[in-house]
Amino acid sequence: MSQALQTLTAALAERTQDSSGVSLFNKISNCIDDVVKIGEYVLEKAKTSSLYSSTNSDQLLDDFRVNLENISCDIKTKTEDSKFDAVFLDKVLRPMSILMRYLNDCLKYPVPAAVENFRSAYKEYAELVNIILIQLENKSSDPMVLSMKSDCLKTRTTFDRWYDIINGMLGQVLLLESFASTFLYSGPNQNLVDRSRKLLATVDSWQEDYIMCDYWNALKQEVEKFQDENGELGVSEKAGKLKMKLDDLLTKDSFYFLVLDPTEAALLEFYAKNQDQLIESSNHSIIIIYRSKYADTADTSMLGSLKSQFETLKNNEIKENPLDQEFIKGKLKDRMRHHMENSIHDAGFICVFSGIKGEIGSANFEQESGPGFSEILKMEFNGTQHGFVVGYN
User: Among 147, 178, 211, where does a domain finish?
Assistant: First the structure.
């Protein structure tokens, strides 16, 4: 018995706050027999005492209780910060909270009164397990589905939070059911474990559905809102916050983005093959976002080839076209379009700028250089920069 307690206590102590629900489900589902043994131990302890007194506390049980309480508090915090409909609150969360409280009492003071309170409450909510699974298996009542529906950007933050909450709920259900099996003499419920794992696999597969959802129009609106809310920030701070937003999108698209603060004499030209892969906003500062739809599947040699093609083109441009600002402003965009169609075959986006203070960044791409090739140089005499971006199709 002490071994079962030590095993579970050690497992719960090794928790990750960001995924406490996933941690709880994995540990409880792999230690069902240990939970049953803990229930048996509590029942035996209760038989030897007739008082609801602190003198009946057990150090091994209390260590387990404290670690369980810590991880449950993480789950509770996420739950309280999330929105549930009234039916889910009444049918699921409130009964589960009551049962977890009585379970905590059994662990803290393993006496007859605590055991009887838990037994009575569990019988009162005998259908709780089935209700929870039905609520989560049905998309019309699953809180993750409802929350993702209201999240127009389909963010990883929303999905991961709810995935963790659902794991935590199922982990608590397994804990309660396994603990109660001792009191109800029903034995551990392997079918519940299997059904829960199947449900989590289904929920996990929904992520692929959300990845395929269209977020682009919502992102355009979000960029304008971002500009209004961050107008006082410098370009570096804006770029950092924008990267966090783009990295949070559930999509296979990869991004280049520019946050620019142009001077009066600045040069800025850009061209994209497909306009539905480009967002431009000039509210406060200039923000340009290009999404590459195929960079995540491109071989690194293809991105290297893109860089080589552009370096050759850049060197030829410098030889053939000196930095005459008026000439460049009048001809540069036409030349970019021509080069994209005839010289840089895998490019979907080219941007060239000069006389600008700004940042180039990339998001949702494993290579720090981004889905293509970029370079930015600082002009020492006036603090402005010039640079370019070439984005993969």
Answer: 211
